[in-house]
Write a structure and sequence with these properties.
There is one protein chain. The chain is an alpha+beta fold. It is 23% helix and 41% strand. The chain contains two helices and six strands; from the N terminus they run E-E-E-E-E-E-H-H. The protein has helices at residues 102-110, 112-133, and strands at residues 7-14, 21-28, 35-45, 49-57, 76-85, 88-97. The protein has a six-stranded antiparallel beta sheet. The radius of gyration is 15 Å and the shape is globular.
Length: 135
């Protein structure tokens, strides 16, 4: 399982705790270049919430500009909340730029659909994985 469908996902580091780092790459199946991303977890409340900062990075975890748009914010903050009701879980994701300049905020807003598609693709793969493992 990985990110959006059609992308190869490689995890280099995974330390799921406040202050921990998750470093991974995602590479399109069509042979394009890999994009490295680093998460730094700031809050984990089991089973209610996960909060992390996200940065595009190199393989060593050094922050770089997004390879697809140099005006993408250097840091974004993601908050994921989980609500269970009647055996179903609703996941709410909030994503916001951190300390961004006006042009970075505009790029972030203009990229809303791309960001939503990425999360939707990832959650669809998670759903398929959970359905297959529960059989």
């Amino acid at each position: 399982m990985g990110g959006p469908k059609g992308w190869k996902f490689e995890v280099l580091q995974s330390d799921f705790r406040p202050g921990g780092v998750f470093l991974y790459s995602q590479k399109p199946d069509d042979g394009g270049d890999a994009m490295w991303v680093k998460f730094v977890y700031s809050e984990i409340v089991t089973p209610e919430k996960i909060v992390y900062s996200s940065f595009f990075s190199d393989r060593e975890g050094n922050t770089i500009r997004a390879p697809f748009n140099e005006n993408w914010p250097l840091e974004t903050l993601t908050s994921m909340s989980f609500m269970e009701d009647g055996g179903k879980t609703t996941v709410t994701v909030t994503l916001a730029p951190v300390s961004a300049a006006e042009d970075e905020i505009n790029t972030f807003i203009e990229s809303k659909e791309m960001t939503q598609e990425g999360f939707i693709g990832t959650f669809k793969q998670l759903e398929d994985y959970l359905l297959n493992t529960s059989k």
